[in-house]
Amino acid sequence: MTVAGGTRVAVRQRLLEPHERAASLPADTAALPYEALVRGILIEPAEVGAQATIRTAAGRVLMGQLEDVEPADTHSFGRPPPALVAVDEAISEVLRRFREQP
Amino acid sequence: MASNSYAAVMARRDEILERSLGIDYTGLERDGGRFDHEALMATAGLELDGIRQVQRDSGVGQTPLVELHNVTELMRREAGHGKGARILVKDEAANPSGSFKDRRASLSAHHASRAGYAGMIAATSGNYGAAVASQAAHYGLRAIVIQEAFDSCGRGQPEILEKGRKCETLGAEVIQTTVGPELFYLLLRVLEETGYFNASLYTPFSIRGIETLGAEIAEDTRALCGRDPDVVLATHAGGGMVTGTARGLRAVGAEHTRMVGVSVDLTGLHMASDRAFNRKSFTTGHSGFSIPFTSWPDRVDVPRNAARPLRYLDRFVLVTQGEVFFATELLARAEGLERGPAGNTSLAAAIPLAAELDRDQVLVISETECTGAGKAPTPQLAFAAEMGVEVRNGAREENRPGEVISIPLSLRELGITPVDLDRLRSSYLKKAMAAPGAEAPEAQAFVAEDLGFGVEDLAALSA
Q1: What is the pLDDT of residues B363-408, one digit of tens each?
Q2: ipTM of the complex
């Protein structure tokens, strides 16, 4: 898919290969490359998955693999876990008794 | 063009730091592994009144001190006869970007602007990123925030993602990395490339910016309670809040206030592990930072850490993740304050600690922080469960970092785990004595001061 210049995208940069990383990392981390994701405005049309150049919010121009188009913030308030609901119920009950017998 | 290999960039560390900070750390070094701490603090270029002025101009500080009447009363019902100090909290969520970190960013931004830097950079997954972005916006500087954000499956803790979103909303560029201590390497690279100011959390600008918090706590408590706070609780990680708050208290004459550091207990989780990364629900204020930073403060991203927690700590305690979530729900429902949860670490410890004190005493919690999507207990616990962490109700002892979050159901189940400060002092002393010339009297005096006691105590500690 070709993405038009001027689109807000995220690019991935591979900064260090596993063998280039810091010494004395735990084994799980040491086996992985060190990478970064940066969002910015695509300067010229590019293919998803190909190298692309962006201008970041700080005005830097940098290149990386085009990973996401119009990236979204999808974190939310989520579904309350039962253990938290139980805490809220317990606190509400204590407060109800507290307010009845100050 | 200079090489960007890990080794090459790290080899340029000193020159990059000097250019990006404008502080001559080398000139502050003394024989025997010492350095001139007060001279370092003076490089901030402002004293308390000047710091207050800078912060007032950018909307930072002067936050409300709120008495937690209902929490205090609930705690007193469980406390012994005549026991149960008044609990108050400094509502630092009222700062421009929603946490006390605005105080830390304010002097950096003020200085960076006056010194002619075009922008500033911080490497942080915490609230500090938003503070840097916010203060940079105020001064018309560019900002770059580097966050350790994703594990190798591309999963990010919702709290960190929310902080990243906030930085972008405030106009900053956000670089989100995979797990690893190479965050520092990347920071150096970007500092070198841009020539921006290094808004490290551990410079004199950052630490002295917190002094207003301690001063306001003393002044507000005097106005509200007619006495100095007996105890101030500060969430403890790199030592900044403990150091800055304690210095501010002393600066306005609150000499007898005891400073207690509180961290979330994450014992056993490796901080550089890709697997462990998303199995903790707190990104800072936890033992993974506070224990190593207290026993050796200079393991930071600047040559010398302006925060020296052992100088100022009277007591250091740990609470569990589950207790902090309980305290967060209690604060919301009993007091109508939806905050945190990470900023409520001290609140969790405040309840059992206030129960030890007399009723006429006053305990102040040094901060709240803003909450929101991703940050609130619900998304954090839902994410923990997705990562295979068991989230259940139970005793504090049942918490197992990375495996079980056990949330108590009542206030009387809250407790604290003491950290032996002398054990941390011994660890510091062992490293300090390895420096050439460490036996000299001046070096010994420095070490004693850095450990928060007299030279005569050093012998007892080494014994």
Answers
A1: 999 999 999 999 999 999 999 999 999 999 999 999 999 999 999 9
A2: 0.97
List chain A residues with CB under 8 Å of B181.
22, 25
Element holding A52 (H helix, E strand): strand A51-55
Q: Which residue of B has its CA nearest to A41?
A: B173
Say if CB B435 and CB B32 are below 8 A apart: yes
- Interface contact flag, B6 A77, Cβ < 8 Å: no
How close B217 comes to chain A (CA, Å)?
Answer: 28
Residue linked to tokens 């101030």: B232
CB distance B439 to B446 below 8 Å: no
> Rounded distance, CA B423 to CA B421, Å?
5
Classify the phi-psi angles of B88: left when phi > 0, otherwise alpha if psi is within -120 to 50, otherwise beta. Answer: beta
Q: With a threshold of 0.80, does the pTM exceed it?
A: yes
Could you say which of B273, B334, B392 has the minimum Cβ distance to residue A29?
A: B273
B274/A32 touch (CB, cutoff 8 Å), yes or no: yes
Q: Which two tokens stand for residue B271?
A: 């901080």
Give the number of other Cβ atoms within 10 Å of residue B201's Cβ: 29
Choosing among A32, A56, A73, A95, which should be mutated to test the B contact, i.e. which has the most B CBs within 10 A? A73
